[in-house]
Every structure is written in structure tokens, then in C-alpha cells.
Amino acid sequence: xxxxxxxxxxxxxxxxxxxxxxxxxxxxxxxxxxxxxxxxxxxxxxxxxxxxxxxxxxxxxxxxxxxxxxxxxxxxxxxxxxxxxxxxxxxxxxxxxxxxxxxxxxxxxxxxxxxxxx
Length: 118
Description:
globular
């Protein structure tokens, strides 16, 4: 797994990597208003992507990132959004605790700081 790091304003850094096993033992912790394009810019391409608006199965997720952010398991996913992922603007965040939501926001802020200053 390739680790990606973004510097933070306070001189620290946020590290994350894609990890297909990160979803195990996670559940809904919160949600965030953000576009697919913004998530893709920050986290890269999703680990699961189904570009259909009406899945052929009972699948309730058609786009998902499975990550470890500073070793915290995190999933970002569309939940029952029966539309193209590029049109989704509210994403669910899963994890073992509310720390997952904090880590997603921290990574997005670090990415914005990186883009502005580097």
C-alpha cells in the first residue's frame, strides 16, 4: 500500500493509504457535504465504483473509499444514492468511532493547505 502524506498548518502531517480491509468492523459515524470530484482530488480514485444509477443487485453502495488515515480505519461511501457518483453531494463516513469523521475533515483541510502553499 502506498502512503500519501499532506502537511498540516501546524507543521504536522496527515498520512493515509488505501486499505481494502479497512471497512471491517466499521459502521456509520457521520456524513459530509462534499462533491465526488473533491473527494477524488483528495483521496484519489475510489476503491469501489459502480457507474450505474440503479444497481442490478441489492447493493446499497455504488462508490466507496476504504482508507486508513493515521492508522484509523475510515470508509467514505454513497448510501442509497441511486444516481451517478459524480452527482452525489452528501457522503457517509464509516469507522470504529467518531474519530473517523475528524480524520476525514483533517485530511481534506491538509489537502487544501497543501494545494494553497506548495
